[in-house]
Amino acid sequence: MTGPEVSGQRLIRNTVANGVGSVVVALLAVVLTPYFLRRLGPAEYGVWLLALGLTFGSGYLGLADLGLQQAGVRMVASARSRNDVPEISRVISTMAVLFLAVGLVLAVVLAMSAHVLTSVFSLPPALVSTARTVFALVGLQIALDLPGASLLALIEGAQRYALLRSVEVGSRLAWAVGAVAVVAQGRGVVAMAVVSLVVAVAGLIVSFLAARRIEPNLSLTFRNAGRETLGEVLRQGSPLIALRVLSVVYRQMDRAIGGVVVGAVAVARYEVAYKIHATAAIALSIAPSAILPAAAYLGAQDDRSKLRRLYLQGTKYAVALCVPVAVAGLIFARALLRTWVGAPYESLTSITRLFLLYPVFVSVHVIGVTMLVGIRRTRGVLVLSAISIVVNLIVSVALAPSRGISGVVIGTLVGYAVVWLPYLHLIFREFDVGLREWSGSVVLPNLAPALAQVLIGRLTVGVAERSSQLWQVVLLVGASCVLSWGVFLIGSLGRDERNSLIRSRRQFLSPEGNCGV
After folding, report:
1. Pick from 288, 503, 275: which is nearest to 381 by CA?
2. Is the Cβ–Cβ distance between 445 and 316 less than 8 Å?
């Protein structure tokens, strides 16, 4: 695997860029949540969270790209390998025209349906009119976000992840500054939605300039949009639609159930627990940026031995990276909630701890599932994902009326628990791995770090409970994670493996590095 666009240097740079982007976005959400809760109140903030469920970036309207954005990424990458700029212009122009048409239709439909949406959720009467305006404004944003997705496909297809994440993080920061400013002036969630619309306009302009920077000869015109290119985009995007649907439904289902069954205030409380869970799960979102292309390359070579080794080593490191963060959250959950959003939210401690079990379970599968997608073995993943979501829905709807948002979180855990072993069986079968080998390669190396972290955590949790500042608790959380990672590096890895990691790091950082596995 050679060439500047698939070099080890670029691979590690892309992974770091994705990781930094994820961390910045997560930290931004963590910082803003208590501010908006205090300024807006749980009910009005809950309205905003429900409105986010209608956005393209993080809501159900993410389905509007029909899986075509990722198809565009692959087609752009292929065209760049041939230095075929006219083909890139045809692909991006076709996607932009299609997305513009779909976006305009959806914007009109959502704006006209705002009054229907407010009747679905259990909103306080005083907020019904406000919610209708917010839902309409957020709905209009799809007409800007969808065409912008075609430009982002070009940036990602060129593997310019640092630029891609800069656009994303820049937009989030711009919205955060604007939203904080308008809320500080007492203007509420309607003004926040207006800020979001303005940032979407700016984001579209920046995305266009970034795309032109990558391809100065890009010709983005209606004339370049063609039926033949559209057919190819649709053909390549169709296998990804189901995965896209399941991903979006999973991310938004719990909020929707909470909003319909319990109310907007419950959604705001759910979001507090979810933010801590999402922060612990950041490591799970970083892995695909490095693993998926490596798996696709090895799959194309039909190199079963290296695929198997990549799975075992990757899973061991994924568990070692993610589990300590979740365990630290489990230990210090009460202190984190009290110093972050205030003593009234300490009642969410049990729910937050339940939520933090989820990334622990998923960390065992994330590398295997990503590799299955990379080598195009998606059927089993789709079936198990669908089963998990259906079980989640049934359990959440059944428990939410009596147990509130804890019932929704229990539904999420039960939904994944029923497919945990089937996922493991599917991965073992595909990569020819046995339970004994997996236990020795993945589980045993991570036992000592986890036990050491739990032991020291039990000894220091009292210090956290007496702390009055968030930074003090975060420092203890960080120290707990560092302890676990240190035990893993020193006690769980042999000298050869540590040396191999050091050599790999040097190769990745060197200009001559390559991404061979």
Report:
1. 288
2. yes
Question: What pLDDT score does 124 carry?
Answer: 74
403 sits in the region (left: phi over 0; alpha: psi -120 to 50; else beta) called alpha
The rounded distance, in Å, linking the Cα atoms of 30 and 278 is 10
CA torsion sign for 447, 453, 454, 456 is positive
Q: Looking only at Cα atoms, what is the longest distance across the chain?
A: 68
How far is residue 394's CA from residue 124's CA, in Å, rounded to a whole number? 26
Contact 44, 126 (CB under 8 A): no
Round to whole Å and give the CA distance between 348 and 116.
Answer: 31
DSSP state of 58: T
d(CA 360, CA 283): 11
Q: Write down the pLDDT at residue 452.
A: 94
What whole-number distance in Å separates Cα of residue 242 and Cα of residue 221? 30
Q: Is residue 8 very low, low, confident or very high in pLDDT (cuts 50, 70, 90)? A: very low
Task: Give the chain's length.
Answer: 517
Residue 415, both tokens: 């939904």
Place of tokens 């982002």: 152
Tokens of 256: 């929707």
The domain spans of the chain are: 12-257+264-275, 281-511
Cα angle 393-397-401, degrees, rounded to a multiple of 5: 160
Three-state secondary structure call for residue 34: helix
Per-position DSSP letters for 344-386, written without gaps between them? GGGGGHHHHHHHHHHHHHHHTTHHHHHHHHHTT--HHHHHHHH
Contact 232, 75 (CB under 8 A): yes
H or E, element range at 128:
helix 128-140
- Residue 487: both structure tokens together: 């035990």
Task: Yes or no: say if 270 and 258 are a contact pair by the CB < 8 Å rule.
Answer: yes
CA–CA distance from 433 to each of 310, 326, 372, 404 (Å)? Answer: 12, 26, 14, 41
CA distance 109 to 135: 11
Among 345, 327, 353, 320, residue whose Cα is nearest residue 446: 320
Q: Is the pLDDT of residue 260 over 50?
A: yes
Q: Are 76 and 92 in contact (CB under 8 A)?
A: yes
Tokens of 293: 């292309």
**Residue (of 380, 339, 397, 282) closest to 26 by Cα position:** 282
Residue 373 CA to residue 367 CA, distance in Å, equals: 10
Sorted by sequence, the CB contacts under 8 Å of residue 495 that are 6+ apart come out as none
Q: State how far the Cα of 278 lies from the Cα of 29, in Å rounded to an integer.
A: 10
CB-CB contact of 427 with 369 (8 Å): yes
pLDDT tens, residue by residue, 342-380 = 888 888 899 899 989 988 999 999 989 888 876 778 788
